[in-house]
Amino acid sequence: MLAxxxxxxxxxxxxxxxxxxxxxxxxxxxxxxxxxxLDGRAGLLVLLWLMTLLPLSLGLKAWLDRHLTDTERLLExxxxxxxxxxxxxxxxxxxxxxxxxxxxxxxxxxxxxxxERDLNERVTTLSQRSEREKARLIALMADxxxxxxxxxxxxxxxxxxxxxxxxxxxxxxxPGVAGGAELIxxxxxxxxxxxxxxIEHALDKLKxxxxxxANHPSSQFVTALAKGRLYRGLVSPVCDxxxxxxxxxxxxxxFVLQLENISAQVEAQHARQQALEKFLAQTRDSxxxxxxxxxxxxxxxxxxxxxxxxxxxxxxxxxxxxQQATLLQxxxxxxxxxxxxxxxxxxxxxxxxxxxxxVAGPLHLKLPExxxxxxxxxxxxxxxxxxxxxxxxxxxxxxxxxIQLKPHNxxxxxxxSLDWPADRPLPELGDWLDQGPGQADxxxxxxxxxxxxxxxxxxxxxRTAAERIAVRLLLPIVQxxxxxxxxxxxxxxxxxxxxxxxxREANTDLLDRALDQLDxxxxxxxxxxxxxxxxxxxxxxxxxxxxNGRVLAQxxxxxxxxxxxxxxxxxxxxxxxxxxxVRGQPRIDEVLPAFHRYCQDSVxxxxxxxxxxxxxxxxxxxxxxxxxxxxxxxxxxxxLAQPNQASHSLDALAERFxxxxxxxxxxxxxxxxxxxxLVRLIxxxxxxxxxxxxxxxxxxxxxxxxxxxx
Length: 710
Prior knowledge:
The protein is an alpha+beta fold. It has 22 helices and 17 strands. Strand 4 and strand 5 (about 245-260) form a beta hairpin. The longest helix is centred in the N-terminal third of the chain and has 48 residues, at about 95-145.
């Protein structure tokens, strides 16, 4: 538009100068004749001016579109692709100048990639040792059987192991929806689960002990967490290194927190204490009665003493006392011996070959459809049963062995079915019960009888057919552990970010913080339609976190939702979610509160966020929620970073930035693509002076797409 105005003014100036020139060179009578000829025909001059202006304007606009606008679009695409390493397609540009610039960009990109490859090879060579040490640390952390969380001094989580993730999942109020992701994650605060004063008290004790010169101090506490479970926490310091690379106790930078669920231990200890108190009370009562009976038995002239009645009653009291003492000993032994939770099928899969060593023929294993968890010393129990099978093989040849596990009256019943001659009686188990499991010394690890006591288990022999017997082992069932799914092939779980050691909570307002220092929750909704105010419902929420400029693929939120209504066929064609898929899924009143906890302490991000936030806002009042976090829209941010592009749809942006969208039009798939897009947009926005959250929000409000409402 400015160019057209300039051309128009130039045309007027040309006419004015032409008039002055004619007035200067023409004789007075000729100038007078010209003025008389043009008198009343000023419109002709204006028409002549417009006829001159129009082709010049169109020509200039075409030239600008071809050379300047295309060049600006080429520049925007070059900036977008520079970080991804994808070359520009020269064929899509018609102008020779743009094609030449595209070739130059691709050539420079190749040179940069070659330089980066050379640099990366050198860096890789120099950092291989560091990577090996880091991989060793990750492997050790993954194999620990205790929850380990490393935090900076603000309580922000910068490392956690899979056991901690599993532990936090059990503490989640919505484990089936959020899976504990609302409690644990890189950059999240540990104070969302454990009270800040408790951690600060432990850190204060550590600082005092470090100041006194303690080498490796630690501090313990016991606290009740979600669902009334008791946990023991062990806090150890993380100190920075000095200039010589040595640990400096005066520079505390964070702490290691180990969490252990001690609820079962406390309950067992309480049960032992109650049993002991009961035993002591019964002992005192029995002693008092024994004293009375002895007094009566020795009293002169007692007729009952002659027929032995007091002695018989005394013997009964002593036997009852002995039974109570035996029971108390069994409870004490069972609770103090180290046992582990294990899937019964895992135990038997590992034990089947050992059990079949004494069997000449085939071995068959039959397991229940649903997993059964046992609390046991799996190795000792395997050795004990193997010894029993070998003990039976000494009395009769064993040709087949059938192993079957099944639930039985709230316990697990293991049957080892063996061949046995019909005319041969069942052998006694006494000798076997008094042996140690396997080759173990009974004086060190106890006998098999004690092993059964430790497991609160029973073992006996039954004849099940004319020529078949069964070794039957009855074991108590325990509540199974939740197990995390294995990572996809080639996928590396993101359970640590040591850069967070350097990040402390800023005292500045959130709007003044830089975009690359914020935590983001990038989300996407799938719905039954595009009119939430008219009754369209959310049927899927997918979200992923971005911390320290990294997309945390493992810390995602992905949940289908039963909308309580039909899903139109047109919507199914877009997102592919059918009524059968959402039937039986949680309703929105369960899912949205879990998502609210998941995205706490973060900035919400979505593509075309106006629609997604409208769907959420309509549910806030009924559920008593308030999503009051700042919101950014990648549609608006992209229009700021690339104002000359024709389209800012997610597909168009993914193509320009070289992103692959997996599971397009699914909640998590679109959220992951939007997160990758956000990471690439932040440096482009910084080039335009949009650095902080406040600047991004103010600039977004000026975008032409900010007027879109739902």
